[in-house]
């Protein structure tokens, strides 16, 4: 059996999110401080042959019947830019909830690009790889980079890596998919309209403490939180439940929802909060985690023997 390449697809968390306006083409201009969790999906690639994807894992049913998921789109986007690209058979272990504001699909697409780049001897900063990321989805470039940074524009402009202390956290999703378009419709900006909102600027410096960073985050926010609550009122319930857990320093929605993150002073507090939330709301997806740079980014890809996927999609 051929040896597989494997990569981790870390959940993306928008610590802040400012909507600066809406372009004439309908896309919204954002400024967002992004970090990554140590929970996510796993993706394996057995190089060779046509592109195929098998999906397994606790969240696999949410992708059932979707032959055009973002892993496939990313592979097609790179193949369009790299003649003769060697693709292969992917196996996606899906753990992150779908349409949840933590970039699960985008993280999977970025992992696919990392694996394909490795299989074809391409550096991750090859313009064809980064262009394929931007062409696949707005959050894919930042997931490909995997660094704590400010993301601007429609996601295509990434700032430098920022020094960020490890942030103990809890991620909570109520199991209600929230369509991004519906949230932006609820925001109600017209094409060409701008908002008097300052871009993200939190004054990072080396050695900043977790407590100092959380204090600065409190002064910012997520401009999509209120419209998301209008679309899915349960988001407000989740924020309230996380905020009430002992030790919670900040509770906020990520992205366009419905996942909410809580920040804590220690791993023990985050773990206790996750246990409490899971017990009180057994239908919710709850994960204790740490936020910071993504695991296994850059050119590092773990190698491990694995069986080939058995279910293909074109």
Query: Number of helical runs?
Result: 9
Helix content: 25-40%
- Tell me the count of domains: 2
Largest sheet: 12 strands, mixed
Structural classification: alpha+beta
Globular, elongated, flat, extended or rod-shaped: what is the shape?
Answer: globular
**Based on DSSP secondary structure assignment, what is the total number of beta strands?**
12
Roughly what fraction of the amino acids lie in strands?
25-35%
Order of helices and strands: EEEEHEHHHEEEHHHHEEHEE
Q: Briefly, what CATH class of the largest domain?
A: Alpha Beta
CATH architecture of the largest domain, by name, is 2-Layer Sandwich
CATH topology of the largest domain: Ribosomal Protein S5, domain 2
Quaternary status: single chain
- What average pLDDT do the residues reach? 90
Q: What distance separates the N and C termini? A: 22 Å
Low-confidence stretches: 296-314
Q: How many whole angstroms does the radius of gyration measure? A: 19 Å
List descriptors.
twelve-stranded mixed sheet; Alpha-Beta Plaits; globular; 2 domains; Ribosomal Protein S5, domain 2; 314 residues; alpha+beta
Task: Summarize the structure in short.
The protein has nine helices and twelve strands. By secondary structure, the chain is α+β, with helices and mostly antiparallel strands.
């Amino acid at each position: 059996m051929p040896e597989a390449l494997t990569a981790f697809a870390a959940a993306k968390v928008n610590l802040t999110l400012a909507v600066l306006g809406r372009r004439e083409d309908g896309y919204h201009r954002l400024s967002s401080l992004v970090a990554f969790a140590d929970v996510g999906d796993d993706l394996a690639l057995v190089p060779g042959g046509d592109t195929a994807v098998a999906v397994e894992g606790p969240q696999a049913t949410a992708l059932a019947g979707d032959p055009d998921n973002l892993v496939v789109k990313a592979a097609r986007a790179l193949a369009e830019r790299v003649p003769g690209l060697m693709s292969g058979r992917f196996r996606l272990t899906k753990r992150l909830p779908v349409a949840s504001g933590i970039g699960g699909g985008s993280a999977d697409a970025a992992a696919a690009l990392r694996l394909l780049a490795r299989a074809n001897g391409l550096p991750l900063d090859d313009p064809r790889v980064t262009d394929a990321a931007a062409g696949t989805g707005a959050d894919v470039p930042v997931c490909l980079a995997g660094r704590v940074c400010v993301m601007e524009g429609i996601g295509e402009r990434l700032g430098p890596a920022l020094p960020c202390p490890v942030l103990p956290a809890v991620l909570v999703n109520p199991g209600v998919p929230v369509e991004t378009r519906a949230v932006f419709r609820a925001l109600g900006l017209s094409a060409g309209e701008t908002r008097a909102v300052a871009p993200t600027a939190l004054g990072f410096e080396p050695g900043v403490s977790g407590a100092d960073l959380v204090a600065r985050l409190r002064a910012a926010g997520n401009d999509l939180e209120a419209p998301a609550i209008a679309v899915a009122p349960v988001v407000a319930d989740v924020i309230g439940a996380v905020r009430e857990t002992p030790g919670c320093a900040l509770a906020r929605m990520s992205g366009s929802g419905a996942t909410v993150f809580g920040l804590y002073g220690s791993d023990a507090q985050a773990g206790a909060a996750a246990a409490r939330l899971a017990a009180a709301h057994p239908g919710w997806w709850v994960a204790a985690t740490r936020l910071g740079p993504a695991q296994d980014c850059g050119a590092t890809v773990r190698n491990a023997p694995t069986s080939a996927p058995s279910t293909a999609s074109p």
